[in-house]
Amino acid sequence: MLTKSADLSPRLSSPLAGWKLCLTAFCLTAGVTTFSSVALAQGQQAAMEAAERAAMEAQARGDDVSPGYGGPPGSGGPPGYGGMEPGYEGMDSYEMEMGSGYGMDDPYGGSGYGGQSNSGRGANMQPSPMVMLELFNPDWSPLTERVQQIFASAAAPKTPVALGPVLRNEAHVAYRYGNLPLALQLFHGFIARGSDAAERQMDQIKFSKHFRKPLWHLRIGTSLAVHGDSSTADPSPITESGSSGGMGRGGMSPDGMGMDSGMMEMAMGSGMDPGMMGPGMGGPGPGGPNGMGMGGEMPMGDMGMYEGDMGMGGPGMGMPGMGMPGRGGRNPAAGMAVPKAEMTDEEVDARMETFLGLVAETVKSGLSKRITEGKFGHALTDVEPESTTQGHTVNGDSVDQAAKSMWIPSVLFVGEGNSRETVKTAHEHGLDLLVHFDVGLKENRVGAVSNISRVKVLDARTGKTLVSSGPMDNTEVERMTRVGRGSPSAYVDEQLKSLWAVVDERLTLSDLPTLSPEVARKRVAQVLGDSSMTPLRKLAEIRYYGYRGWLTTEEVEQAFEITGGVDAMKVLHGSDTQAIEAIHKLVVQTTADES
Question: Does the pTM exceed 0.70?
Answer without folding.
Answer: no
